[in-house]
Amino acid sequence: MDLSTHYLGMRLKNPLVPSASPLSRDLGTLQRMEEAGAAAVVMYSLFEEEILIGDLALHESLSAGAESYAEAISYLPEALYYQTGPEAYLEHLRQVKDHLEIPVIASLNGVSTGGWVRYARELEAAGADALELNLYYLPSDPQLAGSVVEEMYAQLLGELRRTVTLPIAVKLSPFFSSLPHMARRLAGAGAQGLVLFNRFYQPDIDIESLRTEPALELSTSSELRLPLRWIALLFGNVAVEFALTTGVHTAEDAIKGLMAGASVTMMASELLQNGIQRIGEILSELEVWLEVHEYESLVPLIGSMSVLRSGQSAAFERANYISVLRSYLPDAELPASVEAP
Ligand SMILES: Cc1cc2nc3c(=O)[nH]c(=O)nc-3n(C[C@H](O)[C@H](O)[C@H](O)COP(=O)(O)O)c2cc1C
Question: 48-63 and 67-75 are packed helices; what angle lies between their axes, rounded to 10 degrees?
Fold first, then answer.
């Protein structure tokens, strides 16, 4: 059975790729993922803030004052999540490249153009096979138009494109007024792949302490539907390869992703929750399913349920919204105390 696929100019032996997560912090864990059958791996992100803080720390140590460094850190607690910093990240990447045979995709997380982008070149020099750019910006300023944010993203990608020759994939959020337009724009600015979608960790409110708390919940298979829909809509309409992330927990989830048009399906929550051996289990199930359904390779499978190939546009577009709502209401069981309108 030929499970190979193409992603970011690479031929991968199968479509299962662990996405960015703390699992890639440890070389031993990465080796176990390779042994379990992972086709490539995405490293956890190097954050723009970490780089800026690192630069600031250097500046402070040179000018012998630690105060503004401490102040900057207190503004950026999320940047301390991984507590590595650019040099440690690069060193880790070199080690990983020395010990792994599968392609290693480095991940940069940031939104502004500027000095930190030079690290893309260093990631390339450290041996990264490709680069994933995680664009995560939360526009809380009412003065800021969506078009300005989109321009910012395209400019950053353009700058990275000019900085490295590595293939670049952009990991996006689903929150665009017109995702297809944005996807095309990013393809035009040099993205070879789009990773749909970044998953957001919303803060929660503790009603007793009156504090906000970070709430990190792992995904479930039902969250697959959002990237599934968008990849099915975009496949063949934008000149990029797609990676699906969010909600891949089983072989069935992976098959759905491939059918929608993903070249690779990525996993984080499933591996964090149920262990790295899930890669091997899902691969075996995928293989059995393909055999039973008489596929000899992934080629006819990838995109077979996309809008372009299946012609089922209504199912993925607005018409479905109306029919789903209408089909549910008549069956809804209302509690006895509530009168139907
Ligand atoms: C603990 C944790 C850490 C993560 N760290 C990163 C990261 O550094 N960079 C990134 O792009 N995505 C990161 N992600 C997002 C995952 O790569 C993935 O896109 C997301 O979890 C959805 O996939 P899943 O449903 O398989 O978990 C992280 C996810 C988790 C759960």
Answer: 170
